[in-house]
Amino acid sequence: MGRAIGLISVILVVAAGGYIYTRQAQSVTASGETPRTTVDIIGVRNDLMSIANAEKRYWVMNSKYATLDELRSGGDIEIPARRDYTYSVDANDSGFQIIASYSGSDPKAPKRVSVNEAMTITSE
Questions:
Q1: Are residues 46 and 26 both part of a single domain?
Q2: What's the chain's average pLDDT?
């Protein structure tokens, strides 16, 4: 009888741990209906962080934030072309926001992913 209770306890603990793990993993992964969309979103987030780091480097050198064209022409970063995403920068004296806008057909993909000068990524 004692062994059966022990086995049931172990099964319950493993099941609870598995449930908690899967819920946390879902909150971390990117959204999207297809695996390709998920991969694209992860790539877009990496691109946004690279562009944001280039903005910070540009600000250190020039005491202002740059447009995308200034970053490209200065050789600070090469901005990749992503399927269904376009990048834009909204920069002023006090900060910047880099926006990736989605124009594809996946209804679960975020329509806008952005990063600001605090390196905070948001999805809409």
A1: no
A2: 87
